[in-house]
Amino acid sequence: MGPLIPQGIITGEWDFVIALLLGIAFGFILEASGFSSSRNITGAFYGYNFVVLRVFLTAVLVAMIGLLYFNYFGWIDMDMLYILPTYTTPMIVGAIIMGFGFVIGGFCPGTSYTGIAIGKIDAMVFTGGLFLGIFIFSEAFPLFSDFYYSDNLGNVTVSDVLGVSDEVFTMIMVVVGLTAFWATWIIEKRVRKNINPYKFE
Amino acid sequence: MNTNIESIRKPRYINPYFGGVLLGLLLLLTMYITGRGLGASGAVKSAVVTTVDKVAPTHTENSTFYSKFISDSHSPMFNWLVFESLGIFIGGLISGAIFGRLKKLRVEHSPKITPKTRLWAAGIGGILFGIGSQFGRGCSSGAALSGTASFSFGGFLVMMLLFGTGYVVAYFFRKLWI
Question: Are B152 and A91 within 8 A, CB to CB?
Answer without folding.
Answer: no
